[in-house]
Amino acid sequence: MMIFSNLLLAFKLIRSYDHYYNEKEANVMLREANNELFVRDLDLLSQDVEIPVSIFKKDIPANSSCLIFIYSGEECDKCIFEDISILKEKFARLGTNNLIILPVFEDSRNIEIQLNANLDGLKYFRLDPNSVKLPTYEGSTVRFFAILSPTGKIRLTFFPDIVDRKRTRAYLDFVIENIFE
Fold first, then answer.
1. Nearest by Cα to 71 from 80, 58, 63
2. Neighbouring C-beta atoms of residue 87, cutoff 10 Å
């Protein structure tokens, strides 16, 4: 009987160690991924961004800030659509008066049809790629959210990541609770 108890105890210890080791490994991987995102975000924040605010300035609510989401045609459609889906979900209760989408595409009839279909119900302004300077990372432009003040200043910039949608949701919750409510 004692041998059986010792074997059972040894088995439980091995399982506990395996579980601990797997959790520890997952935490190390998560920490490394967060460090990479932090370094990426610092690099992106250090770059100059130019957006022709005059094109849509009249649509910024008076004496109020708005959230902008800017993206280019170079980026993954799935990433963009997921971000837009989260935006629609988060702003459903609040309304979209303080939300402006800024897709950066060449002017063409097909692009306008695509934008009208994809951004149905949202206020958007197509920006010409030559009029905008977006941050780049590893050779590609990077989409971002930011708060645009009535004076045209950009603050609280956030760069979403396809791997961790919780960060995007947390950012939007923060913005809604602290700026728009």
1. 80
2. 19
